[in-house]
Amino acid sequence: MNKKHFWILALSFLALTACGKKEEPKEAAAPAAAPAPGANTEEKVLSVYNWPDYVAKDMIADFEKETGIKVNYQTFENNEALHAKLVAGNSGYDVVVPGAVFAKGQIEGGLLQKLDKSKIPNYGNLDSAIMAKLATVDPGKEYLVPWAWSYTTVGINKTKVMKALGSTPMPENAWDLVFNPTYTAKLKSCGIAYLDSPTEVLPPALHYIGKNAYSNDPADHKAAGEMLAKVRPHVRLFSSTMIDDLAGGKACVALGWAGDINIARSRAIENKSDADIQALLPSTGGLIFMDNLAIPKDAKHPNNALTFIDYFLRPEVSAALTNELSYPTANKASLAKVKPEIAQDKTVFPDAGTLAKMVAPSNFSNAARESLSNVYTAFKKGK
Ligand code: N2P
Predict the structure, then answer these.
(1) What is the spatial distance between Cα 328 and Cα 14, in angstroms, rounded to a whole number?
(2) 102 lines ligand 1 (CB under 6 A)
(3) Separation of CA 24 and ligand 1 centre (Å)
(4) What is the DSSP letter of 359?
(5) Is residue 220 lining ligand 1, measured as CB closer than 6 Å?
(6) Ligand 1 center to 286 CA (angstroms)
(7) Ligand 1 site, residue 260, Cβ cutoff 6 A
């Protein structure tokens, strides 16, 4: 079975399980037993570095209360920013959350440390099909525990988009809304926002022009850059605050993450705005991503980090992330605790047919990342 199909199968299994919510959850592994006295002599502090809007509201406070470990929680905006910190070393972080697209190189580059699974009793709650697939990024499954996954796609404020398009019907392929000048020229008026990093924008652009989304070939990157140059004048924002930009009306179209687009949707509803925000499922497929908990090589508090990772793997803790922020996790034991309206939302847990069309996560070579970065910088500058 090729790479893509293995991922799809693993994720569709999860999606199906999430929908069949009838029976009571089988009792999952009991919460971690406290380590034997003296086992963890680290100072009771932990530095966590995660993406924004990616943690359930009470998780950190509950963890601190229960364990007495004080958490210093900080956020980064893209994989490139996290990677730069890891490469520089002495980041001070004990837990980081790299995307699979960067994690392979970070493991190979010696930037992460092996996880002592004897200190993660809840490890068994992970979905073995997804873990088997993650082994292509993390051979031996020694370094990563998945945090959450979703896919990069197009999000819209439907009312505004319909108005801006006028007599032009919605395209069959939603990627046209951000990459085809016929549409972007019209949507410019209500605001197009892109994610802001080479490895977020170039893979969908490559996919759109019919190339491998994770091509290492500079000629492909150049071709994607040429396509992007045509829509550059129509792009209003390179956003690291996509939730607010969509919910607050700065943008009517986003090249963004489905999870964040769904958060924007909920936020607009809470704010009683009339914005009808939707994550679309492009006919040619979105791009699946998976972000993973990992411990930097030089972390000062690896045992506290393992306690945190194990805490996250409790079914109810993982489920809170899915329920509050509409991001699925790889915690199979959490699925029975996912609210039915989330479990049944096809933009959160796409059905098997939709997943089958999506692009599986992969990674770039170091040389490719440099070429992507050059193409991206030129794209952003050009106007
Ligand atoms: C932030 C989610 C980040 C996911 N809300 C992108 N890898």
Answers:
(1) 9
(2) no
(3) 30
(4) B
(5) no
(6) 15
(7) yes
- Both tokens of 308, joined, read 């945190």
In a 13 Å sphere around the CA of 176, the CA atoms on its Cβ side amount to 13
CA of 79 to the centre of ligand 1 (A): 10
Percentage above 90 pLDDT, the chain: 85
In eight-state DSSP terms, residue 256 is: E
Q: Is the pLDDT of residue 177 over 90?
A: yes
Q: Pick from 54, 78, 287 the residue to mutate for probing ligand 1's pocket: most ligand atoms within 8 Å of its CB.
A: 54
Decide which of 37 and 76 is more confident.
Answer: 76
Q: Quick one: tokens of 246?
A: 């969509």
Tokens 């972080």 locate to: 93
**Tens digits of residue pLDDT in 264-304:** 999 999 998 888 999 999 999 999 999 999 999 999 999 99
> What's the pLDDT at 133?
77
Q: Which atom of ligand 1 is nearest to the CA of 79?
A: 7
Q: Are strands 145-157 and 287-293 parallel, antiparallel or unpaired?
A: antiparallel
Q: Which CATH class is domain 151-288+364-381?
A: alpha beta
Is the CB of 249 within 6 Å of ligand 1?
Answer: no
* CA–CA gap between residue 196 and residue 213 (Å, rounded): 17
Residue 8 has pLDDT above 60, yes or no: yes
| The CATH number fitting domain 45-149+290-349, selected from 3.40.50.620, 3.40.190.10, 3.40.50.1220, 3.30.1700.10 | 3.40.190.10
CA distance 224 to 208: 8
Beta-carbon contacts of 338 under 8 Å, excluding residues fewer than 6 positions away, are: 18, 21, 319, 322, 323
pLDDT at 242 over 60: yes
Measured in angstroms, how far is the CA atom of residue 167 from the centroid of ligand 1? 34
Task: Quickly state the pLDDT bin for 134 (edges 50, 70, 90).
Answer: confident
Task: Specify the pairing of strand 145-157 against strand 253-257.
Answer: antiparallel
For the stretch 148-162, pLDDT in tens is 999 999 999 999 999
Q: Distance of alpha carbon 187 from its chain centroid, rounded?
A: 26
200 lines ligand 1 (CB under 6 A): no
All CATH 3.40.190.10 domain ranges of the chain, comma separated, are 45-149+290-349, 151-288+364-381
